[in-house]
Design a protein that fits this description.
It is built from 5 helices and 7 strands; from the N terminus they run H-E-H-E-H-E-E-H-E-H-E-E. The protein has helices at residues 11-16, 35-44, 57-70, 110-120, 149-158; strands at residues 25-29, 49-54, 75-79, 95-101, 121-132, 161-167, 173-180. It is globular.
Length: 181
């Protein structure tokens, strides 16, 4: 499993806190190197499915290669622009969970990714948002690019999510769990 980001994020610990069940259908929107996709893949097991979605084709190829090397068959890589609602081609109301990890600072239209998550999630589905804590740190994006917890809560509630809990996402990040209503 790729460990590139494990010095500041522990994907397995984060996934454990959202209680993914075997057989669950999950999307990791803005998957990057796939560290969260691989953790979710183990949690949902062989009958589950993880859509690793990103706009960068090179990182998707790397995720696909890593999955093949490790014999992981439940990760499906998918190119998409997350700022276009419906562009992922994931069926409406088909997912048990959506992961938005370290991507909000990269997006211009942040509300679009929340709308896409809502569209794809089943009723009672889980949205996990993990992003950078405010301030300047030795790693991560500039403070001016970071999105606050309050902003995330506003974006989520704006499309109908209700906050369920806050999780431990490590020293540099906050983690919020929402439910689809």
């Amino acid at each position: 499993m790729p460990q590139q980001d494990s010095q500041f994020l522990n994907p397995d610990q984060i996934i454990k806190q959202i209680n993914l069940s075997a057989g669950a259908q999950v999307a990791d929107l803005g998957c990057g190197t796939g560290y969260m996709s691989f953790a979710a893949s183990h949690a949902v097991g062989a009958k589950g499915r993880v859509y690793a979605v990103d706009v960068q084709k090179a990182v998707l190829e790397q995720v696909k290669k890593e999955a093949q090397v490790e014999g992981i068959t439940n990760i499906i890589t998918m190119w998409s622009d997350l700022e276009v609602i419906g562009a992922t081609k994931i069926a409406t109301m088909s997912l048990d969970a959506v992961l938005l990890v370290n991507i909000l600072f990269l997006l211009k239209d942040k509300s679009a990714v929340f709308s896409e998550a809502k569209r794809a999630l089943k009723k009672e589905g889980t949205l996990l948002v993990v992003d950078w804590l405010p301030g300047n740190t030795a790693i991560g994006p500039p403070a001016s690019s970071r999105v606050s917890k309050d902003t995330v809560m506003g974006l989520a509630s704006g499309v109908g999510f209700v906050q369920e809990k806050e999780i431990n996402a490590g020293s540099y990040h906050f983690g919020l769990v929402f439910k689809q209503q």
